[in-house]
Amino acid sequence: MHRVLTSLGHMSPSRQILAELLYRQYWQELRFKTPDSPALKGRKAYSQNDEDGIIEEIFSRVGAHPRVFVEIGCGDGRENNSHLLGIGGWSGVWIDGSRKNIQTLRSEYEAVETGRFRRECLAERQKIVVAHRFMSRENAQSVVAECLNRLGVGPEDVAFLSVDIDGNDLEIADSILGSLQPHCLSIEYNAIFPPSVRYETPYQESFVWKGDDHFGSSLLSICERLSKRDYSLICCNLSGVNAFFAHRKIIEKFERYDVGDLYVAPRHDILAMHHIGYGHRRSLKNLATNADLVFL
pTM score, two decimals? Predict the structure, then answer.
């Protein structure tokens, strides 16, 4: 999970102005090339970049749908693609391979006094099942099935799947899609590769990202693999980190564009500068007043 928002420190006024100007330039370029792109509605609440607004826009077009998510690579829960969904009434599953992340998530959640009070007083509440699991191509389906079973829902109830694990993202996503068909999928892509290049990092079950350019798959390779699962690319976020795909059952809600037009190059530093202005440190406190977290 690439950290684009790395600091809430101070920036000089000139850097702030530069960040805002570049952000607006990227947004205008996106609007010119793909005027119907959900990425134009991007904004940050609890996502790392602008994913919250993109997800909101996608599901505003879908209409009636289940309100269940599965996020692979949830981090410590404070910033990810489904935190805001949980506050908004969705149930779901959080899975992460880092013991430290899950321990931090558990300790912060259990320390929320307001959350404890609300959990005692409110009987009918949505749940988020949290699991510490290192995901592989071999165990992906069984781990997700275990978590959904604990949540009390079936694979047909999942509307949103997010996969961001800095490595075997495509292999894990492809495996999971063999047992469920969410309306929308978000997956990290390696934006260093232009949209004309096919590349997939060779699968290693125990792969761990080393912080360099060796991870994941190119956007074109992801598009070609997921098309076999009936998913089509609908947008990439402005920082060039996550690509969003819609299933065939809802694809008519979105304008179709070429992969080359939808591709976004890596802009991590500029977007980090822009998002520093979002201020307050994220916590689990607001989520804890709305949802019960169940740890496996």
Answer: 0.91
CA distance 68 to 70: 7
Which stretches in the chain have pLDDT values below 70? 1-11, 113-124, 269-279
Q: What is the extent of the structural domain holding 274?
A: 13-295
Total number of domains constituting the chain:
1
162 belongs to a structural domain:
yes
pLDDT one-digit tens code per residue, 171-182? 999 999 999 999
